[in-house]
């Protein structure tokens, strides 16, 4: 089913707002910053948590795996369960859940309670992302949607550059429980901000399994989903092991890996906003350029990344390209399914989160059983396959 074939009974066409709600866009961006920080914060605190609760670092890694997998399920499930509930109320409820979940993590007496609290974090992440990722069309005029989407997804880059490192530092200086308590405080700030500036957002449609299935019959949505799976799976299969790649392939001292990853995050933020600007003019071409750039950047590590300078430059190029992935593919989904943005976004968020976990898992298997170089080849091959899928939609007018 193409976008033109959707009927009024399936979805209401949302009218662009008469005024731009930029404070609301900023509040949602704060929410995305919090979500990504909460999801990834345990990465820097695994040793401390494992030691305190008498579990191995491998078991402590469930603090990251569990919310990612739960988020993948929650993204389509939460909108289905709440039906026609005002999306403002839903977002406020999910942020309140995030606040409570981080309190539970901070006070967890044992590892079982802690993992249970991370399940709640996953529910909040999946549900919030499913609504927030396509919210720009509800908050700003049509011509400002790519820019607003870039701002919302800017919270992702800010979390990687500032949120996770600062949260880890707080944990190292004051203890991991204080770090998670701080996350609860930040969630409360985000909740208050959303309460203050987010307008009423009546549900455009009730999300049902049939509506979700119908999106997969939309060629544009289908290609967007395929591209998302390939790019995100390939990226995380390789990026999960970027630290050993920099050290073993590029000969970079371990002391400089952290600053380089900070540079990757900054480059990602720049790429996010550059892509947001370009997408307002040429969606298809911009997303294709992102996929092609990733196709080149990852395998080139094996040729030009054998030196310190080469490895550092390629890492920054990689960061610039990947920084545009979220805003690029979400804009693609909005244009491919303008009458079912929330349903298409729910599917997109689900496969995005699932691809993160599966990509990291596949990368680990390849590194353990084959070679470190194998994950870079896999990442490049997946990006190439995504580029070919994206290129196949070059004649679709609504993606131009």
From TrEMBL:
Keywords: Cell membrane, Membrane, Transmembrane, Transmembrane helix. GO terms for molecular function: transmembrane transporter activity. Residues 24-398 form the Major facilitator superfamily (MFS) profile domain. The chain crosses the membrane at residues 21-38, 58-82, 89-113, 119-141, 148-170, 176-198, 219-236, 256-275, 287-305, 311-334, 346-366, 372-391. PROSITE patterns: MFS (PS50850). PANTHER family: CHLORAMPHENICOL EFFLUX PUMP RV0191, PURINE EFFLUX PUMP PBUE. GO terms for cellular component: plasma membrane. It comes from the Bacteria. InterPro entries: MFS (IPR011701), MFS_dom (IPR020846), MFS_Efflux_Transporters (IPR050189), MFS_trans_sf (IPR036259). The keyword Repressor does not apply. This is MFS transporter. It is a multi-pass membrane protein. It holds the Pfam family MFS_1. SUPFAM superfamilies: MFS general substrate transporter. Its main location: membrane. Gene3D superfamilies: MFS general substrate transporter like domains (1.20.1250.20).
């Amino acid at each position: 089913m193409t976008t033109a074939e959707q009927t009024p009974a399936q979805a209401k066409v949302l009218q662009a707002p008469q005024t731009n709600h930029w404070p609301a866009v900023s509040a949602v961006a704060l929410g995305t910053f919090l979500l990504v920080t909460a999801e990834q914060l345990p990465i820097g605190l695994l040793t401390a948590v494992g030691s305190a609760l008498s579990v191995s670092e491998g078991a402590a890694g469930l603090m990251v795996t569990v919310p990612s997998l739960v988020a993948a399920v929650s993204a389509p499930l939460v909108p289905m369960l709440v039906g026609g509930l005002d999306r403002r109320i839903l977002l406020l409820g999910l942020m309140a859940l995030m606040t409570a979940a981080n309190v539970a993590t901070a006070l967890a007496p044992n590892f079982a309670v802690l993992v249970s609290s991370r399940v709640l974090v996953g529910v909040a992440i999946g549900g919030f992302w499913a609504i927030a990722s396509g919210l720009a069309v509800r908050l700003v005029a049509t011509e400002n949607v790519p820019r607003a989407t870039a701002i919302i997804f800017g919270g992702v880059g800010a979390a990687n550059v500032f949120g996770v490192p600062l949260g880890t530092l707080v944990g190292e200086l004051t203890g991991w429980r204080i770090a998670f308590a701080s996350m609860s405080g930040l969630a409360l700030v985000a909740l208050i901000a959303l309460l203050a500036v987010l307008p009423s957002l009546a549900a455009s449609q009730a999300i049902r399994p049939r509506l979700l299935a119908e999106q997969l019959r939309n060629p544009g949505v289908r290609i967007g989903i395929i591209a998302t799976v390939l790019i995100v799976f390939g990226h995380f299969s390789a990026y999960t092991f970027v630290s050993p790649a920099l050290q073993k392939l590029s000969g970079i001292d371990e002391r400089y890996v952290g600053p380089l990853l900070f540079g990757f995050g900054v480059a990602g933020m720049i790429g996010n906003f550059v892509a947001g600007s370009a997408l307002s003019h040429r969606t298809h071409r911009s997303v294709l350029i992102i996929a092609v750039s990733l196709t080149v950047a990852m395998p080139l590590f094996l040729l030009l990344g054998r030196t310190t300078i080469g490895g550092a430059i390629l890492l920054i190029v990689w960061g610039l390209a990947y920084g545009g992935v979220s805003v690029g593919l979400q804009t693609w989904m909005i244009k491919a399914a303008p009458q079912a943005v929330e349903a298409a976004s729910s599917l997109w968020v689900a496969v995005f989160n699932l691809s993160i976990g599966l990509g990291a898992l596949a990368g680990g298997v390849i590194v353990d059983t084959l070679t470190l170089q194998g994950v870079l080849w896999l990442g490049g091959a997946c990006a190439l396959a995504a580029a070919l899928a994206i290129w196949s939609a070059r004649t679709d007018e609504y993606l131009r």
